[in-house]
Write a structure and sequence with these properties.
By secondary structure, the protein is mainly beta. The chain has 4 domains: 81 residues, no CATH class; 83 residues, Immunoglobulin-like (Sandwich), CATH 2.60.40.10; 88 residues, Immunoglobulin-like; 86 residues, Sandwich (Immunoglobulin-like). The protein is 4% helix and 48% strand. The protein has 2 helices and 29 strands. Strands 9, 10, 12, 13 and 14 form a 5-stranded antiparallel sheet that branches. A hairpin with a 4-residue loop joins strand 23 and strand 24. The longest helix has 9 residues. The radius of gyration is 39 Å and the shape is elongated. It starts with a strand and ends with a strand.
Amino acid sequence: MQIRREIACDGLPLDGDSRYYSKVGSAGPARPSLPGLPVFLKECPGRAESGKLLTSVQETVTLMKGASIAALTAFVVVATVAVAAAAPPHRPDRVRRTNLSRTQVRLTWQDNSNNESGFEILRHTQLHEGFQSRGTVGANVQEFTDDVQQGTVYTYRVRAFNADGDSDNSNDCFVGRTPPNVPLSVWARYIALSVIRVSWTDASQTEAGFLIQRADEGHGFHAIAVVPANAEYWDDDTLSSAHTYTYRVRALGRLNNCIDNSRFSVARTATTKGGVRILTVDMTGSGRGTVRSIPEGIHCGPQRASCSAEFPIATPVTLIADPSDSSRFKKWLDITACEHEHGPCTLNMGKDRIVTAVFKKNLQ
């Protein structure tokens, strides 16, 4: 908004309006109190300076000093003062796309301004350089319908405008972009008493992440986790023992760019165990050998470097390491009670456990 300010040559406001920016000096004519603003001389008969644009307030004051008070009454200084700095509208955002048909889309956005004159819709295709205007809509309008061709990828932007300029562009919204591929080879399997691992194969290069949904017994699917792009498994440790759960996964598009999510994968079901604990043995080192358990269940090596078995809760389990002829058993790791044992290791299965057996090759 702009306001015109008029100052009589005798230094008095024309109508006594208290909004006038000028002040009446005790020994001279009115002096504008906002330095640096352009000042205009109103058309007045008999003044050579009438209608002249003065480049600064200082020039105006100098001119007024150079004339007597009586002479200055022959003209009026008219100043145009911007009461607020130039204010282009704020940037619209959350541009979204709805497919109305194969050849028509509707764009919607969030209006973040209260001073726009309207919105301009811009579009880019690979067939044209840069963005081209597709039309404008009025203030407060938050949608626009456009025609598209099937098989062509379009990029849309929206910007607000008013007399002071254009806003920054909105987010880019794509039309015709293919969503990420559905995750493949989805599996769900328990890895501990009340932990199920959901795994999949990432079949896309454009996903923003993955959404995992779970259906508890007798209930529908609901979202339980979002993991980053390129992830290929997630462990659900929020479960109850002896319960059945069903999982499905989808790749996430980039909704801020109007790229849809993938379809959901096939659903996979797994059941947690009740009343048991899982013992896992990993074999490492330069040597070779086997590890077995009493009671039976564990049997690792020489071809299986890792193995697992279930045991009833609180069952004592003894692990026995048998090195091959060219190797020796060195030690147990990850279980405090056996870390200094070179023979059998006995542990209580009060919880899930992981034990490492280290074998070393004999020196020749």
